[in-house]
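Researcher: Please generate the 3D structure of the following complex. Treat every line as part of one assembly.
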Amino acid sequence: MALVNDHFLKLPNNYLFADIAKKVNAFKVMHPKADVISLGIGDVTQPLCPAVVEAMHKAADEMGTFEGFRGYGPEQGYDFLREAILKNDFLPRGIHLDLDEIFINDGAKSDTGNIQELIRWDNSIAVTDPIYPVYIDSNAMIGRAGLKGEDGRWSNVIYMPCNAKNGFVPEIPDRRVDVIYLCYPNNPTGTVISKEELRKWVNYALHNDTIIFYDAAYQAYIQDDTIPHSIYEIRGARKCAIEFHSFSKTAGFTGVRCGYTIVPKDLTAATLTGERVPLNPLWYRRQCTKFNGTSYISQRAAEAIYTPEGKEQVKATIDYYMQNSHKMLSTLRSLGFECYGGENAPYIWMRIPDGFDSWHFFENLLYGANVVCTPGVGFGPSGEGYVRFTAFGNHEKTEEALDRIAKWSRKV
Amino acid sequence: MALVNDHFLKLPNNYLFADIAKKVNAFKVMHPKADVISLGIGDVTQPLCPAVVEAMHKAADEMGTFEGFRGYGPEQGYDFLREAILKNDFLPRGIHLDLDEIFINDGAKSDTGNIQELIRWDNSIAVTDPIYPVYIDSNAMIGRAGLKGEDGRWSNVIYMPCNAKNGFVPEIPDRRVDVIYLCYPNNPTGTVISKEELRKWVNYALHNDTIIFYDAAYQAYIQDDTIPHSIYEIRGARKCAIEFHSFSKTAGFTGVRCGYTIVPKDLTAATLTGERVPLNPLWYRRQCTKFNGTSYISQRAAEAIYTPEGKEQVKATIDYYMQNSHKMLSTLRSLGFECYGGENAPYIWMRIPDGFDSWHFFENLLYGANVVCTPGVGFGPSGEGYVRFTAFGNHEKTEEALDRIAKWSRKV
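Model: Done. Output below.
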């Protein structure tokens, strides 16, 4: 008999955003005239900027000519894009990288899901809680996460609670862990980590021979200059961290599919006999075997966000979303809600009133105000008691949603 | 210590096409004025057809407007493309599929590499030999392939030799195997499988509870109407086969990145306790976790090849390549070489003269005629004694290469 990979069967059948969509659809069927506003899923709404559209036109034209046609590109991505990334995202912050430490991908989700292939199935992993579900699910699929308990926790995963008490930056683990997933600015809490705090994690990793998978997908939303955009701003991080970037939220590329991953050459993992193996060539081998490069058009589109016009246009859209975020923060706070994040990230993490659990609050808000949020518990056990709002809507819709929440909250 | 996935360390450091590139570069350094023509790597050379370029322009424009902007698409791909595929590639052949049996991807390489995640690590696998290296390497990375021996064979892989004697369709295995990889029209041999032969494989799979991973990436090159374009033309295949398609060779999408995979709902694998688990929802779960959909622009580009103009234009390019192929076949045969394939596929598999091994022949052809081929042994042990030529060049370059081979062969 061909046997199924039974680790898949341990995964819950339901996927957070599919569950939300189902509940929202059920509501719409019962209330066909209601105008539901979603502040739930983290997808952008504003169009691609003109510089990007122009670059896509140019690339499409090139591909239609004998001289300009490009077939298979380098699995690791074109130099034109890797150079633009290095020059704009790293060198100005004093971070020097070799071009072949930069791997272009089709979005950060693929790489954050696939990166665990590089490490043995029995490494221990620790995650912040709440957390982006992909980190755990991708480990569960290969058996590394163990079994999922009744309490929603996986047996082989160390959960590091992030809550108001610790400012949403978890305590350093009191024992050693092989691999740690960190995401800052954080999804879902919208909170950030200071250089000083991040340094503690890098030092922990260096002392404990731990690898940090650092997800920086939201770094473009940082408004406070003292907050690190990259873990490589911390000395020593080249020896212990892989970093994931995305153009999805930076430039509205959720439908265009392009991002990048940094795998420094100084980063090694051990064999059972203690030899050190650099992970950079292993990731290159992985990509050459199971990936065939990112669309040429998407790579030219990404390059365009680093032009002077592109930079300006992309910043304008980020500012637009951050105006939503600030408006949401002030309104929700004025209504008496306890809110976190939202200052250097497009997410607001809101404490829900006593007496609600997060799915209960979600349903009440949907039926009472026709506004969709994301129940915090969907991101992990420590997410219970919170909901996530996203700032990716239009101004008008977002303000309308806030008005409705205000009216509804006075009645609750 | 964070431990490395040591299965990666069993992989050879060298990758076939990287080795070839290195040798070609060494030659060019020594002979800077030589005009080297490559009939080696399987990449296309002709530009995207006008219908595709137009569709990309339209999609780029849409993405630049509020009304037309699309963010995250469905992980499984947009219905517009899945409907076009169903209507054009399957219904006319009497194959009925549900839309959610079709998964759009960013090229067949990703899915042929990732599909093995669905089955247990200890399933037995069988591959045709020679073979596209991704099938084995992706299994090796998770330990399923075992260890690589001195003879180039992996210890847990069953090799099914394809040679002139068996018409490049291997014998049915004499014992049961959990998973079999088949690729027809075949890369690298360019040979095809008849319906009658394919039926034997489907029957074997049904009787032995075997899953067939069927790579149909080259089906658009089939000229003979009796040759199957899809394994689902065979009754029962829905219960035992997953099929991979690509637009890379069909429409020159090697740089655009789009293809699709069929996972029928009738296909199941077993748990250790004998329960049957359908693989379709598992693949959907895999894609939702580790993939975020294919670029919207690439999907619109793919849709365009199914329009009347698109079909005509794509066929013209395929005919162009097949003219190369026929010319190559007749010339090489007239020179006395034994050639296979090339009639329903863009690859010619040529027996090399006695006294050469395939790397030796490769080097002689490079230095003697400044023409690049691919050494057959790079595709597996049974590839020794052969080289692969591809028909993806320009007419002029291909004819020039043939002239040089003719002159050179008279001297050898």
